[in-house]
Amino acid sequence: xTIQKKLVLGMIGSACLLAACGGDTLELEPPTPQISTxxxxxxxxxxxxxADYHPETAPTDVVWESRALPAPLSGQAYYTxxxxxxxxxxxxxxxxxxxxxxSTSYLLRFEIEIASxxxxxxxxxxxxxxxxxxxxAGAAPTEPKTVLNNGEYTVNLxxxxxxxPGTASQVLGNVANAVQNCGPQVWQTKVLKSTAPLAVTSNxxxxxxxxxxxxxGFEAKSTVFYKSIKVAVEPARKP
Length: 239
What we know:
- The chain has one helix at residues 3-19; strands at residues 35-38, 47-51, 63-68, 76-83, 89-97, 105-116, 133-140, 146-149, 152-155, 160-161, 164-165, 169-174, 188-193, 198-201, 208-216, 221-235.
- The strands form four sheets. Strands 1, 3, 4, 6, 13, 14 and 16 form a seven-stranded antiparallel sheet that branches. Strands 2-5-15-7-12 form a five-stranded antiparallel sheet, with no helix packed on it.
- Helix content is 7%, strand content 44%.
- Strand 8 and strand 9 (152-155) form a beta hairpin.
- By secondary structure, the chain is mainly beta.
- The model is unreliable at 1-21 (pLDDT under 50).
């Protein structure tokens, strides 16, 4: 067989693959949108909110903003924090993502890089300043909102509380860094990841709301820098 004949046969074979050799165009599933934000310049559209408090214990110093990382770190990151006056304060961030198949189940895996100056093994009021401040991530087909429920402001989703996850959330870890000295505080980075996927169903418009934040059992001020968040999204395969 000549080289020219081989090329012709190869082109025919490729055409058969594309047209299924029957004249019909092969239907290919569109790629699933992935989620990734590096907070090196801005909040990138993430919105801040807080919950888990009563009117008389509402924090007055909650902040969300892009700031320069403290030394010895460098660059910019997304800074958030506030004072827990209720023994339970959830400071979270949310954003809507689109382009998914409508009313379809997906599996999400989270990876969040933070910077924290809270040492490990230290004692604090109500709980440890590091180990009792949990990093939480979750997702839902509807917007996470803070609502008044029986005299307490809570989130309108089953997100669990502190160390306990809910059906819409995962506890990825806490803000304690690797420093064992409870004296001078040192800023360090830390990467927190899902140990299992979280299932979520997109809404009828093919949208998913993602949220993440810190849930504090430490009755004082907690702060953290978010350097990045990545969410691996894949369709849930039926057996």
